[in-house]
Design brief:
12 strands, alpha+beta, Nucleoside Triphosphate Pyrophosphohydrolase, about 20% helix, eight-stranded mixed β-sheet
Amino acid sequence: MTDLSSCPPWLDRLRAAAPTLDVPPMLRPRPGRGRAAAVLLLFGEGPDGPDVLLTERAATLAKHAGQPAFPGGRIDPEDDGPVHAALREAWEEAGVEPGGVEVLATMPELYLARSEHRVTPVAAWWRDPSEIAPGHPGEVATVARVPITDLTDPANRVTVRHPNGLKLGPAFKVGGMFVWGFTAGLLTQVLDAAGWDRPWDHDHVEELPGHILDLAARRP
């Protein structure tokens, strides 16, 4: 059994809620559909207080170019399930030493129809933080520890809309990144489940930034 004696009290509520988080209808797995994947939601005590690790994908990628994300990827045959895959990907993408990480819980699987992946989020406590840096320059452009207070600051939160008028959901403007899509949706759910959420103006709508639209337009 994992020793969580060093886990801080501010993670207690998330640890209890994570295994049974509600799955929105559009993200519920389809039987027999999708490739198995995992992402790591890694929480630590950073220089600016509690934080979470995010990466930003390289602008040269064919898929999800330039998008902020949690470390993660497909579960390989050699992986011992989603936890092992999430820790391996965090090491490869950001230099996170697996030995310094304590797993809190695995969350319910989520289905991403656009990429046809079944994603298992893994919540973890960064007991012994390691130095971080992009591990794959061709895949990862940036790695950053984003303070929870920045994520919950109402001034950094918006509802994002496509220029065609379609509302795409919540977004965060933090650390020089525009976090939207799957990552922003999962962050929003986690902030609420952990009791960290603060009221913000859901009617504050902004369009997707031009550079994101340009990257999406050149996708093959």
